[in-house]
Amino acid sequence: MRQIPQRSAVPTALTWDLTTIYPDDAAFTTALGEIQTAADQAAQLKGQLATSGADLYRVTTAIFALYRQIERAEVYASLKNDQDTGNATYQGLADQADALAAKVGTAVAWFEPEVLALSADQLQALIDQEPQLKAYQHYFDVLGRQRAHTLTADEERLLAGASDIFDASAKTFGVLSNADLEFPVVQDEDGKDVRLSEGLYGVLLESVQPAVREQAFKALYRVYQQFRHTFASTLSSEVKTHNYTAQIRHYGSAREAAMSGNNVPAVVYDTLVKTVNQHLTSLHQYVALRKELLGLPELHMWDLYTPITGEPSLKYTYEEAQQEALKALAVLGPDYVANVQKMFDSRAIDVVENQGKRTGAYSGGMYDTKPYILLNWQDSLESLYTLVHEMGHSMHSHYTRTNQPFQYGDYSIFVAEIASTTNENLLTDYLLKTQTDPKVRAFILNHYLDGFKGTVYRQTQFAEFEDYIHQQAAAGQSLTADFMSDFYGKLNHRYYGDAVVSDPQIADEWTRIPHFYYNYYVYQYSTGFAAATTLAQRILSGDAAKRDAYLGYLKSGSSDLPLNVMKKAGVDMTQPDYLETAFQTFDDRLAEFKQLAEQLKRQ
Ligand SMILES: [Zn+2]
C-alpha cells in the first residue's frame, strides 16, 4: 500500500510558498500586535464620519485598511493550518488569528450602522464633498440598499442577541444528522460488514453491484424515516425563521430577503425554475438511457449514481496535467496562459497529499497575496478537472485584484463558481477535440452529463421545493412531514420521469438535505453551471470580443452588481437564453454519448 508522506518529506517544489505573505512566523506574530493596535484605534473613530466628506474618507479608509490587515493574517494562519492540521503550532496560530478577527469585528461593528443612519441624500452630499470618495461610490450604493431593511438600534440589538436562538433549528438538524443518528451495518462490494454513514452512502451508491446500492439506500432511509417528524419540525422552524426575519425587515418574501444579499432579483430564480421545467424531457431521456446501458429491468433511485462507462484508462502525472491545462485554457488568450504558467512556476500550488493535510481542493489567498491553490493530487482525469476548476477561481482572483481597488477586490458567491465551471467546460471541449478513443470520449461526455444532472437539474429541484415550503408556510400551511413528503415525492417524479421507479423512500429525501437550511442558496449552483456552459461556447467561438467580454467579468470583482457583470460578459441571467444554450449543449452531448454507448456495446 502507498504510504502518505509526512509534511516534512514533501519536496519543496510541490509545496506552496507562504513566505511572500510573512517571511516567518515571528513576522506573523508582530503583525497580530499591529492589528490589535489598529483595531483599538478604529474603535475610537466611532461618531466621526458624518462631520465632512474628508472625515468620511478618513474613517472609511482606516476601516478598510484594518480589514486588509486582518485578512492577510487570517489567510496565512489558515493556509499553514490546512497544510498539516495535526501541527499544534499552526492550530494555535489559526486560533489566534480567528480570535483577533472576532475582536476586529466588534471594534468596527458601529461603522455600517453609522453610515446607514445617514439619509441617502446626506450620504451623497458627503461623498460629493470629497473627490477621493468616488472610489467608494458603488460600495456605499450597495450598502445603502440595506437602509430600508435596517431597524432601529434597539431593535437591531434585540435581533442580534437572539441570533443564536434563530440558528437553533439548523444546529439541531446538524447535531441530529451528524452525531446522533445511528446507521446500521451493511455489506460493501466485497461482502464485508461496514457501518453506514452519509459519507459511505455516497461510495456505496456508486457500487457496480445493484444489491449493494439497494441495501445502502434502504438502510439509510429507514434511519431517517424514524425521525421524519423531528426533521419536519427543524425544517419548519427554519423556514418560519426565514419568513419572520424577512417580514420584520420589510421584505416582500424570504426569497427576496435572501437574494438581496447578492443583489440578485427574483426573476433570475423564476426564469431558472420555469426553463428547467421546460427541459425535463432531456433528463427523462438521460435516465432512460442509463437504464438501458445498465441493463436493468427496473431503474431505481439508488441506480442514479453508479458509473455507466467504467473508469477511463486516462492517467496524468501532475506535470502532464499542467501541460494539458495550459492547452485547454489557451483559448482564453496569451495573457491568461502566462498567468497560469506563473502559478505553476511560483510555488502557488500545494500539490500532493501529506499526513494531516486538509482534504479536497480549494483556491484561497487574499488581495495582497498570490491566489494559492490546495490540491490532493492523484494521477487521474478527475484531478485534472480539479486543477482547471481551482485555476478558474485563482485567475478570477488574479484579474480582479490586479484591476480593482481593495474595496472591490473580492466577488460574490453568485458569480464565483462561474469562472471555475467555465474552465471545466473548456477542458471538456479540449478533451473531446483531442481524445479519439470512444471509451475515453464516452467517459468525458458522461462526466459532463452527470455534472449537469447533479447541478442544473438536482439543485433546481431543491430550489423549487425550498421556495414552495416557504410560500406555503407564509400562507399559514403547517409544514408537517406528510405535507412535505407528498410534494417532494411528486416533484421527484416530475424531474426524473417514468423511466425510474418512484421508490417511496425518496419522498422523504428532504429530511437529509443540509442545503434546505442555507436559505435560498442552491439556485446559484444551477444558474452558475448553465452560465458557464454558455460562456465557454462564446469563448470557443473564436470571436475575440466575446473572449474579452469574459475576461472583463474576471476583472470586475465586486465593482458592479453581479447581474451587470454577467450581462457585460454576455449572459443576461434575467432571460432564458443562456439556459436554452446550456440545454442545447446537454442535448447534443447526450446524443453523442448515446451513439458512442451503442457503438461500444456492439464491439
Ligand atoms: Zn469552486
Layout of secondary structure:
Elements: H1 25-43, H2 53-83, H3 88-107, H4 111-116, H5 120-129, H6 137-144, H7 153-161, H8 163-166, H9 168-180, E1 185-187, E2 193-195, H10 198-204, H11 210-226, H12 228-248, H13 254-260, H14 266-278, H15 280-294, H16 318-328, H17 334-345, E3 349-350, E4 362-364, E5 372-374, H18 381-403, H19 413-434, H20 438-474, H21 481-496, H22 523-540, H23 544-556, H24 562-569, H25 577-602
Helix pairs in contact: 1-2, 1-3, 2-3, 2-5, 9-12, 12-13, 12-20, 14-20, 15-25, 16-18, 18-19, 18-23, 19-20, 19-22, 20-21, 20-22, 20-25, 22-23, 22-25, 23-24
This protein binds zinc ion (ZN).
How is this structure best described in words?
The chain has 603 residues and is mainly alpha-helical. The protein has a domain at 7-166: Oligopeptidase f, N-terminal domain (Butyryl-CoA Dehydrogenase, subunit A, domain 3), CATH 1.20.140. It has helices spanning 25-43, 53-83, 88-107, 111-116, 120-129, 137-144, 153-161, 163-166, 168-180, 198-204, 210-226, 228-248, 254-260, 266-278, 280-294, 318-328, 334-345, 381-403, 413-434, 438-474, 481-496, 523-540, 544-556, 562-569, 577-602, and strands at residues 185-187, 193-195, 349-350, 362-364, 372-374. The strands form two sheets. Strands 3-5-4 form a three-stranded mixed β-sheet, with helices on both faces. A hairpin with a 7-residue loop joins strand 4 and strand 5 (372-374). Helix 16 crosses helix 18. The model has no long low-confidence stretch (mean pLDDT 95). It binds zinc ion.
